[in-house]
Amino acid sequence: MNIKEIKKEALLARICATRQIMGEDAAQAAAESINQLLKEKEEINILFAAAPSQNEFLAALQKYALPWNRIHALHMDEYIGLQADAPQRFGNYLKEHIFAALPFKSIHYLYIEGASPENICTHYEEVLQKHPIDIVFMGIGENGHIAFNDPHVALFDDPQQVKVVLLDEVCRTQQVHDGCFSSLEKVPQQAVTITIPVMMKATRIFCIVPGKPKANAVKETLYGPVSTTCPASILRTHPHATLYCDRDSASLLSI
């Protein structure tokens, strides 16, 4: 398997030839990390991202015979205002792509039907108190966001664990590019999101980022300033974060 590596400060980037190889490479490392942590702890907590960029990774991860019944599953962001059965809901994506397929110890969706956004945040802060994150599986947005921490709302020292955010137009347009919505007008303007400090406290971070539309965000993550202008740049300060790219998302890198 021909994989190239780039190290920028603490962040290791692995450049794979295809999306499929990228997903398999990340899944193998993730499975090893899960097994290692479960030697140290009886149960662990994993935070999942929901996006088409995660498809190959999640499919590959399910092939590993891991002790899923010792793992609590959480998810990092969700739209406000979509119907419960809307396929664009991130909880529904995760249910379809991994949560329903594996016997997790527990699954904690970032939404409560009928609850106010503020009450959703309060509830999920209680979930995080009970289940502090050990491993994060995440992506990066075209605007460099992690979870729904777009540049205009991202705080590296955010005092909140979960918050309500207004999504910027680049983020919302990406959802159309990804095929999740047919037009910008149909993309919700608000969401709830886990904040950056919560993710950065995890023991391991696996960041899976395929596709040419992400090439500039990948470049800024690795070579731009560590700044909320590109929130993902904070990954360069995490001691155990790995960025997984395919040839397209790495196309602006010098490799």
TrEMBL record:
SUPFAM superfamilies per the UniProt record, alphabetical: NagB/RpiA/CoA transferase-like
Gene3D superfamilies assigned to the protein according to its UniProt record, in alphabetical order: 3.40.50.1360
GO MF term list: glucosamine-6-phosphate deaminase activity; identical protein binding
GO annotations of cellular component type: cytoplasm
Keywords assigned by UniProt, alphabetized: Hydrolase
Domain Glucosamine/galactosamine-6-phosphate isomerase as annotated: residue spans: 20-237
EC number: 3.5.99.6
InterPro entries: Glc/Gal-6P_isomerase (IPR006148), Glucosamine6P_isomerase (IPR004547), Glucosamine6P_isomerase_CS (IPR018321), NagB/RpiA_transferase-like (IPR037171)
GO biological process: carbohydrate metabolic process; glucosamine catabolic process; N-acetylglucosamine catabolic process; N-acetylneuraminate catabolic process
Protein name per its UniProtKB record: Glucosamine-6-phosphate deaminase
Gene for this chain: nagB_3
